Amino acid sequence: xxxxxxxxVKDITSTLIKAGHKAHVVGGSVRDLLIGRxxxxxxxxxxxxxxxxxxxxxxxxxATADRPATVYExxxxxxxxxxxxxxxxxxxxxVTTFRKEETYSDLRHPDQVTFTGSLEEDLARRDFTINAIxxxxxxxxxxPFEGRxxxxxxxVRAVGDPRKRFSExxxxxxxxxxxxxxxxxxxxxxxEAAVKSHSKLLSKIAKERIRDEFVKIxxxxxxxxxxxxxxxxxxxxxxxxxxxxHEGVGVGQNKHHIYTVWEHNILSLDYAxxxxxxxxxxxxxxxxxxxKPRTKEGDGSDSTFYNHEVVGxxxxxxxxxxxxxxxxxxxxxxxxxxxxxxxxxxxEVTSAGVRRFINRVGPxxxxxxxxxxxxxxxxxxxxxxxxxxxxxxxxxxxxxxxDPISHKMLKVKGDELxxxxxxxxxxxxxxILSILLExxxxxxxxxxxxxxxxxxxxLNRLNDEELQAKATIASETKTEFESGIEEGMKKKxxxx
Length: 496
What we know:
With 496 residues, the chain is an alpha+beta fold.
């Protein structure tokens, strides 16, 4: 079988071999080549020591003293070789000296690294057999732990004793599930048992590293995300990722749901993943009903979950902050969860209601909110992701999207108000603008400079207490989407 190794990688292995050293492509790149995937990155292992590697490549790819070709900033024998390739995946190739590793006191990094001249000893320290395969520059395979057999059997198996592998580096517990989810594999029986028995060790790992592996599970293809979440729960790993999700296991819903909260959440994620939606949508689909177990009232077909979207948004925010997700990402996911319960019925929601809805959720969030609603519906077991009501809503949004829905679209600005009303900067300006906006959302024809200024002058006659009260009423005006035509409608539809 012929394997395509990029010239940038061949140049590095050839340079090492010509200097009398061993050099092999190793790890994930070999695994991916063997199963017909395009490698995401390339790694080379060699018996050359780090200082020898640096010397050999000191003038590599036109390097100069000001633009060195190597980077060596670790104690694990890995030297980065700058190839100057235009392909970002090949711009830096990591070359690592064959090594053995001693104890892992922190359950993540070896206490001591010993360089060796043996490729087999180097492969023996690796996590899984499918990642412990080496390839020479002419395509010859070196596979001492039978990783190719596991690739054919679609199994993730630890190298050697799995209990030892996971005790060395507890992040491997999560990586085992991640590799299986990405590749569509299963965990080998003994490896799976060791993951479950060592699951508590994951609590010792930095949240950022857990986050990164969790994201890769969510972004894996096809059914990988759903399988991965089920496996995380089954192997007791979920409690160190997002334990709030486990609260939904076995929690029944009402007559409009055939699945438990947990089943519904992962089925919603499954839909989002199979639609190739971005990470924000997948995360929101997984977490959108996080608040249901804590808000459930009653049991059986008549149970309710009032305000679960509000509670769930707060829970999601806490969980994502714990995993050190970026603040913008957290804000977006929590916002989608907060507003995923919008109610829409063709004959009951007005154009003004649609404008208020757009104002509340933000026009930039509408497409993602609709995607989340689709995932929510399919995760509930209904046959159609986009029913007539949802299509009609999109029509209404398109119809009113040019109408004024925010302060910046008003024909009167704050500076002009202060000038005309002789006001200093302060809350009165904001209160008046809020009241004006609500009147314009209700009737766009009122977005006229003269009419707005006339209304503003009338409002300015009110004292602070009266004006603030009026502004509060305006800002709290519910859309038909949020109220569901209030509690009677909520009860009729079981907040669905």
